Amino acid sequence: MPASPWPTPRSVRQASQLHAVLTTSGKIVHPPSTGHLLNSLTNCLSAPRHLGYALSLFDRLPLHSTFIFDTALRACLRASGGADHPVLLFRRMRRGGVRADAFTFHFLFRCCARARPRLCRMLHAACLRTMLPSAGTLVANPLIHMYAALGFTDDARRAFDEIPVKDAVAWTTMIGGLAKMGLLDEARWLLVQAPERNVVSWTSLIAGYSRAGRAAEAVDCFNSMLSDGVAPDEVAVVGVLSACSRLKDLDLGRSLHFLIGEKRINMSDNLVVALIDMYAKCGDIACAQGIFDAVGRGQKPQPWNAIIDGYCKLGLVDVARSLFDQMDTPDVITFNSMITGYIHSGRLRDALLLFMQMRRHNLRADNFTVVSLLTACASLGALPQGRALLASIEQRLVEEDVYLVTALVDMYMKCGRVDEATIVFQRMGERDVHTWSAMIAGLAFNGMGKVALEYFCQMKRDGFQPNSVTYIAVLTACSHSCLLNEGRLHFNEMRSLHRIHPQIEHYGCMVDLLARSGLLDEAMDLVQTMPMQPNAVIWGSILSACRVHKKIDLARHAAELLLKLEPDEDAVYVQLYNIYIDSRKWVDASRIRMLMEERGVKKTAGYSSITVARQVHKFVVNDQSHPWTFEIIAMMEEIAHRLKSVGYAPITSKITVDVDEEEKEQALLAHSEKMTIAFGLISLPPNLPIHIMKNLRVCEDCHSAIKLISKLWKREIIVRDRSRFHHFRDGTCSCNDFW
DNA sequence: CTAGGGTTAG
């Protein structure tokens, strides 16, 4: 090609100016000028939005040589505009009889690294048919990359092995592909075999270990690299910093920070982000703030995001918010971090307000936003709002992914919709260990322990390795459904088969299961042999079981320890008080009362709440403050009447106040959960389940009464209290105990 | 003209 008489544009804007000059001077019809324009425009492309312009220039050219096609393909690659245009270009090339060369396939394979597998294989076949020497690194390296990106590591490996003379990039591409797939041992082995170990190979391995949660090995890798004499660069340091923040190793982080100065590594934005993130996650927020103040307050949102997320993770959302308010151009990540921060601090209203504010910044919610909000809906039991979010998936505003669908399963489960959660789960394409765990946990706390265990079996049959979270779900299933033998089996298997060390949560489930089954001695043996100090959950399980199984001495012991851990927890005093009353130890009981008064512990009032038309209604016992009190009382009378007509006798035996039987019945009827359900019955459409929340445990009488209400009114009723999830339907409850 | 990393979610 002859040297162009025109200047070379360095931006899209300059290219379009040259375009205008060419058009007005009539030179646009001159193919070499247009070719020059297309070529230099291609060098300026970095986002899909100008790809159409480049391709329109291509269409204007009368003659399409191999070089021009290759340039158009290069434009597609630079603009990262997907695989559709490249494939069309390739078809036109073949129809026009234009010969493809090595560059053609080089660009095609790179464009198609995220395309459908069938298409990729067809392109590979087309390449083989051209009789080009396809094992040269110019073609083979992108081919390895494409197969590795698809997850077809065997095909990638075959392409790699067929290269007669491999260059450094071939080795690095192969090692990087294996590392990205999580095949870290293979990647490491290849690195050892490679003629040259460069920074790029080491970095992909470091990042691979870090992503796989093997952060210690990532750091080892970094050290091996240094002792191998390979100088770290900015990218390598970013990788090892992220491993460091996972390890929460502040000393290591500081030494890496020092290394950056020592080796004069360029302080890029990414490095600033990684440093701020590392200091924040390692617990030195002051240092993170220092770096941010020194270099992070530029125009770019990334360093702001890192420090804002750091404050959110510490629970200091208001500090995070004040930084947020100082920003000029927050991006989606800023909003997501702030929204998640609010949600984790229970400030759902603030989260929602920010979500609505996103529109004003012309930002669209993405998967992260939707997942966070789904989690909020799950913890609120806000099914209608959760469904509204689902609509955003159906309208293709966000792409379905594993996180999203798992959050959806979790949301349905926490709202008591086991059937809908199951449908979502069955329909989803990709599952991982979190999805299975969410499903098993959901079935467990909806009282379907047996089904949960069936899912656990299927999970293992499908080849998924359960992790410690999965086992918390499995053991919860056993304890909530009193599956003693299964619980023992899985507790043993998690150690022997999967080499997972039980954490306090696992012991908690086992102690609960044994205690509920009346095996309090065995439960206590477990408590004494476990390698950590028992926490309040464990003593709580023991104490509750003592009431049912009438073990006063053990109850006293458990309560004593529990009160050391949580001296202000009124429920403990009440529990022990009730145990003494049950066994007619009046003196001991009154001592507890005195103790509470001495220590100034007040019994927190029980309350229940329900969300109707996006408004939360809260009731305490005998509540008269609601504007609909009149209707509610009428409905409660109706409930009392209907319960009585089917022979229901209120369970008054647990009431220890010295009043007559009728007063006891009256008191029970005025319990907040019954009032809330009465309000739900009159205010919610009949097809909706009644979903209420309670801050304390549901009492025995309410539990039995609600069972009957669900049958008499043919309504699903879901009650979440502080430790159980009760799903009432047609006279039964998913949770057949209430202590 | 090729290869590696990164703040937000279940």
From TrEMBL:
<feature type="repeat" description="PPR">
    <location>
        <begin position="198"/>
        <end position="232"/>
    </location>
</feature>
<dbReference type="GO" id="GO:0003723">
    <property type="term" value="F:RNA binding"/>
</dbReference>
<dbReference type="Pfam" id="PF01535">
    <property type="entry name" value="PPR"/>
</dbReference>
<dbReference type="InterPro" id="IPR002885">
    <property type="entry name" value="PPR_rpt"/>
</dbReference>
<feature type="domain" description="DYW">
    <location>
        <begin position="647"/>
        <end position="739"/>
    </location>
</feature>
<protein>
    <submittedName>
        <fullName>Pentatricopeptide repeat-containing protein</fullName>
    </submittedName>
</protein>
<dbReference type="InterPro" id="IPR046960">
    <property type="entry name" value="PPR_At4g14850-like_plant"/>
</dbReference>
<keyword id="KW-0677">Repeat</keyword>
<dbReference type="InterPro" id="IPR032867">
    <property type="entry name" value="DYW_dom"/>
</dbReference>
<dbReference type="InterPro" id="IPR011990">
    <property type="entry name" value="TPR-like_helical_dom_sf"/>
</dbReference>
<dbReference type="Pfam" id="PF13041">
    <property type="entry name" value="PPR_2"/>
</dbReference>
<dbReference type="GO" id="GO:0008270">
    <property type="term" value="F:zinc ion binding"/>
</dbReference>
<feature type="repeat" description="PPR">
    <location>
        <begin position="331"/>
        <end position="365"/>
    </location>
</feature>
<dbReference type="Pfam" id="PF12854">
    <property type="entry name" value="PPR_1"/>
</dbReference>
<feature type="repeat" description="PPR">
    <location>
        <begin position="167"/>
        <end position="197"/>
    </location>
</feature>
<dbReference type="GO" id="GO:0009451">
    <property type="term" value="P:RNA modification"/>
</dbReference>
<feature type="repeat" description="PPR">
    <location>
        <begin position="300"/>
        <end position="330"/>
    </location>
</feature>
<feature type="repeat" description="PPR">
    <location>
        <begin position="432"/>
        <end position="466"/>
    </location>
</feature>
<dbReference type="InterPro" id="IPR046848">
    <property type="entry name" value="E_motif"/>
</dbReference>
<keyword id="KW-0809">Transit peptide</keyword>
<feature type="repeat" description="PPR">
    <location>
        <begin position="401"/>
        <end position="431"/>
    </location>
</feature>
<dbReference type="Pfam" id="PF14432">
    <property type="entry name" value="DYW_deaminase"/>
</dbReference>
<dbReference type="Pfam" id="PF20431">
    <property type="entry name" value="E_motif"/>
</dbReference>
